[in-house]
Structures are given as structure tokens and as C-alpha cells.
Amino acid sequence: MAATVLDGVKISNAIKAEVAAEVATLTVGGLRPGLAVVLVGHNPASEVYVRNKVKSCEQTGIYSEKHTPADTATTEDLLALIADLNHRDEIDGILVQLPLPKQVDSQKVLLAVDPAKDVDGFHPMNVGYLSTQRPGLVACTPAGVMEMLKRCGIATSGAEAVVIGRSDIVGKPMAMLLTNANATVTICHSRTKDLPGVCRRADILVAAIGKAGMVTRDFVKPGAAVIDVGMNRVTDAAEFASFWKGRQGSEKREAEFAAKGSTLMGDVAPEVAEVAGALTPVPGGVGPLTVAMLMSNTVKAMKMRRGNKLATPAGTASSGTASSGTAD
Ligand code: NDP
């Protein structure tokens, strides 16, 4: 039986609708959440991501502003911009779109963001809060995965979870959130021995690798929930055909590849749909949730930092919105 498709677009829209309702309440209370996005240079992929983020702000009623330093910007230029945004009270979230140009010390810039405005959840202070289960801002992509599991009724408590990937922005916080949600978690990476064998233990398998279709059916326990974080652009016709040619339901994708010469796919091979119990599609799975959680984090950052200035109590305005924290 084919895996249930976990619809990230639907869940993302639900989260954004909840955020919009909460923003409306907060605005009535006299405060409007604000997000500043910093986009350095003209990386086409980054421009698309930033456009989506700004559009989501418009949809949810969050104030947004875009800062676009030239690709010749120095570390000092960006530190000055971050310092200014840190000081402005109406800015609740600061997002520095990665990657930054080579001449910029990215770590230094990210570290300069006030942890209270770090809506990406990358600052070591927020990473520490997450690992010690204190309230803080959690990285958007893994937080989105937790929302998806929760809203799709996939139980984490007592489940065996395997995360492939140990990056600071996806793999590690993902593993920490699953641990906090009482899963038994294994983290895998490029040195893991017998990767398929370890993955087959998983009730919940999260792939955050960056290699198209690497997770094949022999990685998956029958009935497992498979969450595909990977986003890979496949342009090679033979590689495309190895995954999609003649596969039932792939007509649209084949037509897209014929027209555009590329397709976006995850780390999970399409054949996994025949083994898994539930599976996120790419596109339309984890990606949309990342942006929704950015909106949710911006509201959360506002409430944590200046919620006491609201005309209505913050507590009454906070019901229903995605938690981005621990889940069970
Ligand atoms: P990184 O490159 O930082 O990390 C990749 C991880 O995968 C590393 O830990 C690496 O191991 C591991 N890995 C690489 N090759 C193998 C292998 N053959 N076997 C086992 N493990 C392997 O990537 P990110 O975490 O930043 O991103 C992962 C993917 O998720 C990418 O496709 C990215 O585009 C996507 N992404 C999607 C988002 C979304 O919103 N949907 C948001 C962020 C990322 P090691 O540490 O040993 O090198």
C-alpha cells in the first residue's frame, strides 16, 4: 500500500492562519511583530527564499523590511547593520539569509544577532536553551518537522527515531527536539557504518543529507514515517530517469523535467513510497513549514521580548499558535 502523503502546504497554511489571527490580536493590543531580513548580494536561490518570507509576512500581517547590502559588503558593514537592528524596538526578528559572500565571517555575523531576535534559532544561546529545554527560539526547519509530526498524529514518545545529518541548522536541533519529545534518537552521518541497517530501526526517519534519492527502500522499516528535508535540484537526464521514468503518478514531474530540464527532489527515492507508512513530498513537504515556523518564531520573539507592553495580556493572545518548542 502506498504511503500516506504528509501535506506540508496544508499544514503550513494552517499555521500561517493561526499566526495571522494572533498577529491581529497583538496589533489590536498596540504591538505589531516585525521581521528584518538581510539579503546580501544576488544569489538567485536566496532571492526566491527571501521573496517567500516577505510574502508570508504580508499574508500574516507581520511588518517586514528587507535590507540588501551589495555582495562586496564586509563583515564590519554587516555587524553595523545587525547592531542597528538589534537596537530597534519594533524589530522582533532578524534573519540573515545564508550563504553570505566569501569575504564575510558568517559565524561572527550570526553571533552578533541578539539571541532574543534570533528567529532562525542559530545562536548558541538558543541552541543551549533547546538542549536544556528552556523557552527560546528553535531552528525553523526542525521545528516545522515537529509540527508536522504532531498535527499528523505521528507519536514520538517511545518511538525509535533516526536522523540522517548532523548539521547545526537541521540535523542536530532535529535530534534534540525528538529527544525532548521522548523519542529514542540515533544521529547518523557520513561515517556511520551500515547506514541502511541503522535506518531500518526507525519508526520515524528524518533525512537531512543533501543527496538526491539517497534513501532507498532498503533504509526503511515497513510502515515507518519518513520525513524528507533534502532539497536537491536534479538536472542530469539519466539520474532523473533512474528515479522517475515510468513510475506511476510521475507524469507531471516528467513533463516538468522535459520542459525545464530540472526537477527539485528530496533525499528520499520515490520507491520509498511503496514501503513507508507516511512520507513528505518534495516539493510541498518540509519546505513550506520552514517559512510558517519563521512567522511563528517572529511572533514568539515579540511576545518573549516585549509582550509585557501589550494592552491585552500576552497569555490570552497566545492560544493555538504553533509552539516550535517541545512536542509529545
Ligand atoms: P549539510 O551539508 O550541512 O549536512 C549534511 C549532513 O548529511 C552532514 O551531517 C553529512 O555528514 C551528512 N551526509 C552527507 N553525505 C552522507 C552520506 N553519504 N551518508 C550519511 N550522511 C551523509 O546540509 P544541511 O543540514 O544544511 O541540509 C541538508 C539538506 O536539507 C539539504 O538538501 C538542504 O538543501 C536541505 N534543507 C532544506 C530545508 C527546508 O526548508 N526544506 C532547510 C534547510 C536545509 P558529515 O557531518 O559526516 O559530513
Topology:
Layout: E1 4-5, H1 8-28, E2 34-38, H2 44-60, E3 63-67, H3 75-87, E4 93-96, H4 106-112, H5 124-131, H6 140-151, E5 160-164, H7 171-180, E6 184-188, H8 195-199, E7 204-207, E8 225-228, E9 232-234, H9 237-244, H10 251-260, E10 263-265, E11 278-279, H11 286-306, H12 314-317
The chain binds NADPH dihydro-nicotinamide-adenine-dinucleotide phosphate (NDP).
The site of NADPH dihydro-nicotinamide-adenine-dinucleotide phosphate has 25 residues, from helix 11.
Give a nutshell description of this structure.
It contains 12 helices and 11 strands. The protein has helices at 8-28, 44-60, 75-87, 106-112, 124-131, 140-151, 171-180, 195-199, 237-244, 251-260, 286-306, 314-317, and strands at residues 4-5, 34-38, 63-67, 93-96, 160-164, 184-188, 204-207, 225-228, 232-234, 263-265, 278-279. 46% of the residues are buried.
Distance between the termini: 28 Å
Instruction: List segments where confidence is low: pLDDT < 50 over at least 5 consecutive residues.
Output: 324-328
Q: What is the CATH architecture term of the domain at 140-231 and 266-287? A: 3-Layer(aba) Sandwich
Mean pLDDT: 94
What oligomeric arrangement do these chains adopt?
single chain
Order of helices and strands: EHEHEHEHHHEHEHEEEHHEEHH
Q: Helix amount, in percent? A: 40-55%
Annotated CATH homologous superfamily of the domain at 140-231 and 266-287: NAD(P)-binding Rossmann-like Domain
Tell me the strand percentage band: 5-15%
Find the CATH topology of the domain at 140-231 and 266-287.
Answer: Rossmann fold
Q: Number of DSSP strands?
A: 11
State the CATH class of the domain at 140-231 and 266-287: Alpha Beta
> What is the global morphology?
globular
Structural class comes to alpha/beta
Please report the number of helical segments: 12
Side-by-side strand order of the widest sheet: 1-11-8-7-5-6
Main beta sheet strand tally, sense and closure:
6 strands, parallel
What bound compounds does this protein have? NADPH dihydro-nicotinamide-adenine-dinucleotide phosphate
Q: Using only CA atoms, what is the Rg? A: 20 Å
